[in-house]
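Memo to structure team: turn this sequence into structure tokens by end of day. - J.P.
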Amino acid sequence: MLDPLAKIVQDSTRADPYTGAMRESTETIRTSYDAVAAAYVEHLSGELAAKPLDRHLLNRFAEEIGDRGVVADLGCGPGHVARYLHEQGAQMLGIDLSPEMIRWATDLNPGIDFRVGDFRSLDLADGSLAGVVAFYSVIHLDAEGRATAFKEFRRILDSRGALLLAFHIGAETIHRDELWGQAVSLDFRFLEPAEVTAALRKAGFTVAERTEREPYEGTEYPSRRCYVLARTAPEGQPAGD
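Reply from structure team:
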């Protein structure tokens, strides 16, 4: 039986544009998440049950996409967001930098396609997706890395494509050398919503909605959260709100 997602994959793998320090950073993120994958599943794979606003926004996103095409969960981790959207009727593809995360996602979520990949350079065809969801996926990237990612999100989305992005609000960067008892090296970047929306517009999106909330006490790290719904701007039309 032909893989229904096969049509979105390009015939040839895109060239890896990363060398030097950027490649080293990518490897550090990959190995860190490989190390904590099992603990991540234990602590966070059921987190949406305690996050009503997240579920509401994901429900609306799934309703907007409908049956138009595939949605990619980029930086999918163990696949809990992809699973939730799949349960709402979305055709899902999950991609993560960490092979161990993808192993867990595949084991925990039969019926969803998960693949290892770097969402800054994907082997997906131009305009091949109806939607992209990226919950806390860009928080390990600096401004240049986020700009690269947003351009790639725009490239793989079709002319009616939608993006749902989530991140911590702030200007600080928190470095962790240990997470759930495992050695890691991760920078968690808090982001200013105005800077993120400006970067999305520059990458070719229109920003439709921006939602902010206080942290859910006892459920998550005590930071304010931002969710941005953006859509692809038509070719030749300036991006904006």
